[in-house]
Design goal:
Length: about 500
């Protein structure tokens, strides 16, 4: 790591606003899956329908994460950050007041836009408010806050579901985000990037949605529609159309959402794909397990008990953090990524043998192994995605990797949910007991996640020319936060706006 000759620490106000909001957004994101059974019972909708509260959030986040950073560069980072906070407060209120699935899903999709805006612009505010070692300290604190929020979310959600009702999470998040508004207004200076073109690639954002939404819809509903049915084929065709249109639009955009030239960088492509797979596996697994643990045919846990049950995974990912960068330095990032995905594949493969007779303790070791593996794969991949490009391209590279994280989560949750539901339904139709059908569905989805993890091992070949910098505090924070956001480990130019 190299530091700038100028050392300018970030002010207390911008540090608090960015770090507290990042903690709240990440805690909210990881808590929602735990709350789905409670929400389902309260609003009278199936969990399969409410899956869109998870995938919809990620889909919108993928389309907005880069655009929001560009909006901040052009119209003012503080202004767009404040807009994200206000939108987050309103979305929390909409969800908490909803009496049906439509309100919850719509609120979560709005929250996806708000959350990605807060994360992108919050990091940008820190980048322009500090320099040198002061900037690295600010980024380290932001990364630590993100990691703590993501780890604590399921437990917080479980506690609130049992005490205040599931709505309590959203009211508390709304209150904290609302407090960040006057703090930001009074302590954070406005900033823009005067060298950036004023054009915003709105078409690119729309085409991302056109490519992803039909694809997720096909993955979610294809089992019921029939994989060769007209609705499924139409959705897949729309997705292909959106993908082709996106590439064509980016080639002609003045300020493209994604610089297609960067996709010629093999290390960046490999690391972004690794990030996509990690995000997919961890999000899908937490979705499946939170439902299995709370299902009466499974363990029949309360939301709080389910939140506690996921702690071994969160604790393992945090515990491995201090080891990730030193190990990647010693053996090379490609071997670290390969070993990580190998461990994740082994853990998921173990869960493929789940039986109704399994006690909770049988899940603990596979959970720890695969979580350690995903952390080990994700840290070097996240670091490589930004260090493999020139300093002036760091923001774009970070945006690509963060978009990949949202895409991976949405696609994998939809695919794993469909596999689990199809297998469980098929077993139930043959007269199998509910516990057997539920376990079979989880086992089938675990096979899919094991295959995804095994595919990640091959990505090590794309990282063979990548070198890893010696470990510092910012590397550790970046590794810890890598499941939720990519944090550059090099100081950023004051006008770059930081990562997306």
């Amino acid at each position: 790591m190299r530091a700038s000759g100028v050392n300018r620490p970030a002010g207390t106000g911008v540090l608090l606003a960015a770090c507290v909001s990042a903690l709240v957004v990440n805690a909210n994101t990881s808590a929602v899956t735990i709350l789905l059974p409670a929400i389902s019972q309260d609003v009278g909708a199936s969990v399969d329908t409410l899956q869109w509260a998870v995938t919809g959030y990620m889909l919108v986040g993928a389309a907005v994460i880069v655009t929001s950073g560009a909006l901040g560069d052009v119209f003012g980072r503080r202004r767009i950050f404040l807009s994200g906070l206000v939108l987050f407060v309103l979305s929390c209120a909409l969800i908490a007041l909803s009496s049906g699935a439509a309100g919850v899903i719509a609120g979560r999709m709005i929250q996806g836009a708000a959350g990605s805006t807060i994360l992108a612009c919050g990091m940008s505010l820190l980048s322009v408010a500090s320099a040198g070692t002061g900037q690295l300290r600010a980024i380290t604190l932001w990364g630590a806050a993100s990691a703590v929020g993501a780890a604590a979310g399921p437990l917080i959600g479980g506690i609130l579901a049992g005490s205040t009702g599931w709505q309590g999470l959203f009211w508390i998040d709304a209150a904290i985000a609302a407090l960040c508004v006057p703090l930001t207004w009074s302590t954070v200076r406005e900033s823009r990037d005067p060298d950036r073109p004023r054009e915003i690639d709105v078409l690119g954002s729309v085409l991302v949605a056109v490519a992803l939404v039909p694809l997720v819809l096909a993955l979610s509903e294809g089992g019921g529609w029939g994989w060769l049915s007209a609705p499924t084929i139409i959705c897949l065709g729309l997705s292909v159309f959106g993908g082709i249109g996106f590439v064509l639009a980016e080639r002609h955009a003045t300020a493209p959402l994604v610089d297609l030239q960067l996709l010629r960088n093999r290390v960046l492509v490999g690391s972004a794909t690794a990030i996509l797979l990690v995000a997919g596996v961890i999000n899908a697994l937490m979705y499946l397990l939170s439902l299995y643990f709370q299902d009466p045919a499974g363990f029949g846990m309360t939301a709080l008990q389910a939140g506690l049950a996921t702690l071994p995974a969160a604790a393992a990912m945090i515990a491995i953090t201090p080891v990730i960068t030193p190990l990647a330095v010693r053996i090379g990032p490609r071997y670290a990524v390969a070993i990580g995905f190998g461990l994740a594949a082994a853990g998921c493969a173990t869960l493929a043998f789940v039986e109704p007779s399994w006690e909770y303790t049988a899940f603990v070791l596979p959970l720890i192994v695969l979580s350690v593996g995903l952390g080990l794969a994700n840290g070097p991949a996240s670091s490589a995605s930004t260090s493999a490009v020139d300093p002036e391209q760091t923001g774009q590279a970070s945006g690509i990797s963060n978009m990949a994280r949202y895409v991976g989560g949405s696609l994998a949750v939809a695919a794993a949910g469909t596999v689990s539901t199809a297998i469980s339904g098929g077993r139930a139709d043959t007269g199998a007991p509910a516990a057997d059908a539920l376990a079979a569905g989880l086992a089938g989805a675990a096979v899919l996640l094991a295959l995804m993890s095994a595919g990640g091992v091959a990505l090590a070949l794309l990282l063979r020319h990548q070198r890893t910098e010696p470990a510092t505090a910012v590397h550790l924070a970046a590794a810890a936060a890598a499941t939720s956001h990519t944090i550059p480990t090099r100081p950023l130019p004051a006008t770059s706006g930081g990562p997306r």
